[in-house]
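Title: Prediction job returns without error message
Component: structure pipeline
Severity: low
Priority: P3
Assignee: unassigned

Description:
Job completed but the reporter wants confirmation the result is attached to the right record. Sequence as submitted:
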Amino acid sequence: MKHLAWIALLPLAAFAGARDDYAQQWPLALSNADAGAYRVVLDRTVYRQLQSPDLKDLVVVNADGVAVAASLFDAAQPLARPANAVQVPWFPLPSGSASPSRDIASISEIAADGSLRRVVMTDAGATGGGSSNEYLVDTSRLREPVQALQVTWAVGQAPFDRPYRVSASDDLKNWRVVQEEGHLVELENNGARVFKDRIELEGVQAKYLRLAPLQKNQGALSLTTVRAELAPAPASESWQWEEIAGKRVAEKDGTYSFQFQLEGRFPFERADVVLPGNSSNQWTLQSRDDEEAAWRPASAPWIAFQLEGGATANRSAPQSLGQLDRDRYWRLIPGNEVGDALPTLRLGYRPEVVVFLAQGRAPYALLAGSARGKRADAPLPQLVDALRAQRGQDWQPADATLGPMQALAGAAALTPAPVERDWKAWLLWALLVGGALIVAGFAFSLLKKPANK
C-alpha cells in the first residue's frame, strides 16, 4: 500500500541477482499490487535448486533484474504463518445514518443470502464516491469471528487522527456497540510518523459492522479497501516430507548401513523410517554435508515400528532431529538385521518464508541455485518489528505466490566462476624475473673472462 512508500529509503541490494548467475526462477504473483512488503512460502522445487547451506543463493529480483531487499524467516517465527484476513464489501453511509434510531435497512438492498448489494445515498448533503465519513461493512459471508478491521485509504489526505465507534447488527435495525473508540491515524512531524490502520475488536460475529465517527466536524476520509482479520484457526503445523530411497553399504568393521543422498537444502527437523510389512527396529541416524567429511549424529537412536492389521496400520511417531539440518548425505544404522529389505528414509520439514520489499518495477521473480550469486543482508526483521509496533502485532506482509519454475542458466550457474587472474601482475613478475636472469647471466659471463695482465 502507499503507506509503505517510505521503505524506498532502504537501498536496493547489490546487482548480485543477475539472472545469468542463477539456475532457475519462479515468477511471483502479488495478492495486492500496492502492499509494499510481501511474503512468499518456499516449496520443494525451490529447495531442490539451492546450493548454499545458509540459502544465500536465493534472491528476489525486480523487472530490471536487480535484487531487492529480502530476508529468510524460519517456520517457527510468527511471520511464517499467513495472515487470516479477507477483503470485505463496504459502503459509504449518508450523513446522519449513524444515529441509533436510523433504520439502515430502509436504504439498503439486501440479497437473499443476507449480503448487501447497495446502499442508497439519498440524504441531503450525503457524499458519494467513497468519500463519506460513515461506513457500513458487510461481513455476512464470514463464518469466523472478526478480530479487527484493517482499513486502507487514498494517499494525499491531510494528516488526521479519527476516532470511530463500531457497532454490530444482524438485521441493520438493531445495533450493539462492539468497540467504543477505535482510531485510524496518519500523522507526521519532523520526519517521525504515526500510522494506524486497524480497529481492534474482540471476536465479533455479526452480519454487518458500522463505523460511526465520534468527531462530527472532521472532513470525509476516502477509503479504498476494508479487510476483516479473522480469529486464528487452531494451530496446525504443515509438515512436508521428502522420501529418499537408499542403498546398502558395507562398512569397514564388517557391519552395514543404508546411505542416502538428496539434492537441495531442505530445513529438515524430523525423520522417519519405512520398511515393508510389519517391522520394529532401533535406528541410528547420521548426516554430513560432504562425502569426505566424518559422519555426525543427526538424532538420538530411536525405535521405529509399523504394525499392519486389517484396514489400519499403527506406526511410531517421527523422530525429532533436535535442530534444523540441511545436510545432503544421510546414513541409517540398524540395531538388528533387516534382511534384504531396503528402508525408505523420510525427512520432514516446515516450509520457510522469504519476505521482500517491492523496490523497482514489477513483475518480481524468485531466483535460486547458484555457485556465484549471493543474497545481500537486509534489515527486514527490524522493519517487520517496526511495522508491527505501528500497526499491531498481527500485521503481516501481503502474500506472493510462486508461479511455474522457469529455466535460467541451469547447471552452468552451479559451476563456480573461474578465478580471475591479474595478467598485469604476472607480466610484471615475468619482466622482473627475466631482467634478473639477464643481469645474472651478464655477471656470470664477466666472471668467466680471464683477468687482464
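Comment from assignee: result matches the submitted record. The two ends are 99 Å apart (CA to CA).
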